[in-house]
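To fix ideas, we now present one chain and its tokenised fold:
***
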Amino acid sequence: MSIVIKRLKFISFILLFALSFSSCTQMKIDKLNKKGMELFEKKKFKAANQVFSEILSLDKDFLPAYFNRAISNSFLSENTKALKDFNHIIKIQGYSEEALLNRAIIYENTGKYNEAIKDYDQILEANPYHLKALHYKGISLYYLGNFNAAIREYDKAIENGLDVSGLYYNKGVALDCLNKYKEAINNYSKAIKIDKKFKLAIYARGIAYFNIKDTKLAKANLEYAKKLGHPKAANMLKTIK
């Protein structure tokens, strides 16, 4: 009944400048990279993309341009092109945490959850305490229907210090799917404590209260979710007597 919070895009733009070398070509690359980053920060992704491609026409080995172009393409929903650049970086470097993480997110956003988990596992093999990889792996496991495994990953992230509303909400959704409504309510409440206007969590908590037959608190949460603009709250309230 609820949807897991997913990242629209992972904003992990590499702000790297080419090293200052003596050749005119390398000086041009430095200027182009700066220009590309400025365009990206202004959300002019197509223009930034063109600049990064121009850099690669001058130096096909300039890896930051591949990364930055991949991020631009991901914002343009050009996932195939973005994956091609991330794959190139990983092939050359062997292990690149940022490339793996962003590639996994693209896999996840396009429904390739097993591929995403493989990339998250590579990151976690190198760093078992990588909070984003733990959280995001949990999301992929959730979408595969493995709710208990998803909760284990969420718990690892929480135990290691990740304290964000989306994580508690996602854990609540997984608990909901296991009909563990009281535990779900506890996690929705933690999410709402961090973000008092988190309408998805407020709505989900209202549904969870309804499921344990606490009509008063169900109505209170759904009324607030309706006030905040949740699209389903009004119809749900009509079903509660």
Observations:
- The chain has a mean pLDDT of 91.
- The radius of gyration is 22 Å.
